[in-house]
Amino acid sequence: MVTDLDGTLLDHPKYLSKKYVKDLNEMIDKGLKFTIATGRDMKKTLKAIPDLKLPYPCILTNGALLADLKTQEFLKITNINPTIINEILTLSDEFKIPPIVFAVFNPNSKKVTFNKGTWGSKGIKPLESEHYLPFKEQDVVSIQFHTKKELLDPFKDIIYKNFKKETNLIYIEDVAYNALGYEGEWYWLEINSHEAGKAQMLRYLTDHLNIKMQDVVAFGDNHNDIGMLKAAGYGIAMKNSPAELKEVADYIAPSNADGGVITYIKSHIEELL
């Protein structure tokens, strides 16, 4: 069983409630095979589920990374072709849309560093060039942009046209910005390697664990979960999901605010075990 975090497992915007952590840990202790596939990095994932006893590695950064949260070791890392990175950054400069996240892997320290600007209630401030240009020759795991849709659309379209075979693009709306009082439609554009993706990394993990994809139950709530739900044997969308995800799902669970993932697992625990 694999689940997304934000909008799916998490009933709070920043974490999973203690009562749900307790319920889930009890089911994991009984033998539930369970893990996470999230767009979050390791630090933010650990903050959201610090007390969850995950028995298997987790899929992070929308499938760009596979990690053991207990040891904080990265087990599989995907990186973007260096030539493409240079071309993307040239386009970024031309469109005057600097990255807001620039993640790189250091093979010597075996660590992934996420250079980040600011967003959300703190305001919006992309990265200054000195926080990403000196790192572009390293193993770049992920480049992310965040701005209004009308600015990001033409930038995204060129990248997709030029590099669709060499990259995995995630383009989703930041719906939280309406609640924060920002005008217009604000979107995230995340660029990862073509080897990345929740579905791709899930296939790698199941092969490693000798589990058949047809035996996997997957939960998600957004467009970046479509591939994972389609690849799994049984795909479950949350009630709060967009129509595009619900169309590919085998079942619709209650919303994340109502503990939909935990509710489903508890009501099906015997067959899942």
From TrEMBL:
The keyword Hydrolase appears for this protein: yes
Gene Ontology molecular-function annotations: magnesium ion binding; phosphatase activity
EC number of this enzyme: 3.1.3.-
Coiled coil start-end: none
One matching Pfam family: Hydrolase_3
Gene Ontology cellular component annotations, sorted alphabetically: cytosol
Alphabetized UniProt keyword annotations: Hydrolase
PROSITE patterns in the record: COF_2
UniProt keyword annotation of Aminoacyl-tRNA synthetase present: no
InterPro entries to which the protein is assigned, alphabetical: HAD-like_sf (IPR036412), HAD-SF_hydro_IIB (IPR006379), HAD_sf (IPR023214)
Protein name: HAD family hydrolase
